[in-house]
C-alpha cells in the first residue's frame, strides 16, 4: 500500500515536471515568436493617419497606445497576438469603424515619438487606398444605380466618382477611385451595402500594385 502511494507520487511528480518543462519551452517559443512578430510583421492592416513608412513606423512606435486613447471614435486598436499588424501597434478595420478624418488629427498629435506625423493635414493622409474588388457583387454591375460609396465619401466628388462604362453589353455607372485624392479612411467600405464590401481599403502598396517582381516584365 505504502509502495503504491510512493509509485503514484513519483508518477505525479514526473507528470508535473514534464508539464512544467513543456510550459517553459512553449513560453520560450512564444516569447521568441512575439519578439519576431513585434519587430518584423508586415502590416496588412491600416495605420492611423500620418503614419511613417512601415519600416520607420515600426522602428519608432513604442506601442504606448496614446493614439488609440486620443481617437474620439474608437477607430484604432492595438494589434494582439495572431493579428496581421505587429503586436502592440495601432491599426483600424474600416468595415467595423473607419477613420472619421478629424481635422485636428488627435491620434497623430498624441504620438510622442514621431511614428505618426503630428503635422499631417488630414486630406494629405495616405492610410490606404479604396479599391473596387467585388465587380460581381457591386450593385452597379448588376444594373442598379448605387452611389452610396460616392455619397458618404468625406472628399466627395474628388476621391470617388461614378464614371460611365460598359459591362456585359450594358452601359453602367462604375464607382471609380482617384488614388491621388483618396486618403484610405474607409468610409466607403464601412457603408457599402453588399454583404462583403464590394469596395475595400487596402494598404497603398497593395491597392496601387507596387513595383513588378518579374525581372522579365520590368522596363529596361
From TrEMBL:
Any idea which UniProt keywords this protein has? Answer: 4Fe-4S, Electron transport, Iron, Iron-sulfur, Metal-binding, Repeat, Transport
Tell me the protein's name. Answer: Ferredoxin-type protein NapG
According to the entry, every stretch annotated as the 4Fe-4S ferredoxin-type domain falls at: 51-81, 88-121, 173-204
The keyword Transport is assigned to this record: yes
